[in-house]
Design a protein that fits this description.
The chain is of the alpha+beta class. It contains 9 helices and 4 strands; from the N terminus they run ααααααβαβαββα. It has 3 domains: about 80 residues, no CATH class; about 30 residues; about 130 residues, 2-Layer Sandwich (60s Ribosomal Protein L30, Chain: A), CATH 3.30.1330. Helix content is about 65%, strand content about 10%. The chain has a 4-stranded mixed beta sheet.
Length: about 250
């Protein structure tokens, strides 16, 4: 009989303990939630967004919606939050970049269809205007142009060969490089870009200054000088430039 009573009492003690523990745990959880709610209200009063509060107190947005439904932010605060939100800013930048790229691609395709291909006359005239702006005009027996942009140099060579009838082998190339540039690799670069054999490259001029020390952006391969020693060619170019000057 005493054993049965003891077992019964032990069971009652365990049940009582479980109940008390459960009650204490529930009270503790409620207290923690109340503290989080109070903190959420305080942060909201400071102008924090749901996302910012969620990151600070680690609660779900559904809980915040329930707690803060009567505490909306004013329009000015919402505007400031949107302006400072890194994700929103990045999303906006990506969206604008995509729109700009699509717009520029459309413009490129439209203008390319209208402009290209160039006729022989258009290439001839384009070359004269290029030389008018970029070509050397001090030597009466040499036609020469220098530029850092490979595309401009390639156009000049194309003009010399197609419009002016200059043989490829008469073209000479001289590079102007900086002291921290590798001469061999730059000669190879320009030879490949221009389709001019390395044997037609003259001695490189190397500046004492460095490419890394420049305060402005370049194409990174120095300056390429193209020249053709031909009196008749030079006189023809100069005559047409004078015609353009007189008749424009």
């Amino acid at each position: 009989m005493s054993i049965g009573i003891n077992i019964s009492l032990s069971t009652n003690y365990i049940r009582t303990f479980d109940y008390l523990f459960s009650e204490l745990y529930s009270i503790s959880m409620v207290k923690a939630l109340m503290e989080k709610r109070i903190l959420a209200l305080k942060l909201r009063a400071e102008g924090k967004s749901y996302s910012q509060i969620k990151d600070i107190i680690n609660v779900s947005k559904s809980s915040l919606s329930l707690w803060l439904k009567d505490h909306p932010l004013d329009k000015e605060t919402i505007s400031k939050l949107r302006d400072k939100n890194p994700k929103r800013i990045e999303k906006y930048r990506n969206s604008m970049r995509a729109k700009r790229e699509a717009r520029l691609k459309s413009v490129y395709n439209r203008e390319s269809a209208e402009l290209m291909p160039l006729s022989k006359r258009e290439l001839l005239i384009g070359g004269y205007f290029l030389y008018w702006g970029e070509g050397a005009k001090t030597k009466p027996y040499e036609s020469s142009l220098s530029n850092t942009n490979p595309a401009i140099v390639k156009f000049f060579i194309k003009w010399l060969i197609i419009s002016m009838g200059v043989p490829n082998e008469k073209i000479r190339v001289r590079l102007h490089l900086y002291s921290d540039m590798d001469e061999k690799s730059e000669i190879t670069f320009w030879s490949n870009q221009l389709n001019i054999p390395i044997k037609q490259f003259c001695k490189t001029y190397t500046k004492m200054s460095t490419l890394q020390g420049l305060s402005f952006k370049t194409f990174g391969h120095g300056t390429c000088n193209i020249r053709v020693s031909d009196r008749d060619l030079t006189e023809k170019i100069f005559a047409n430039l004078q015609i353009i000057t007189d008749k424009i």
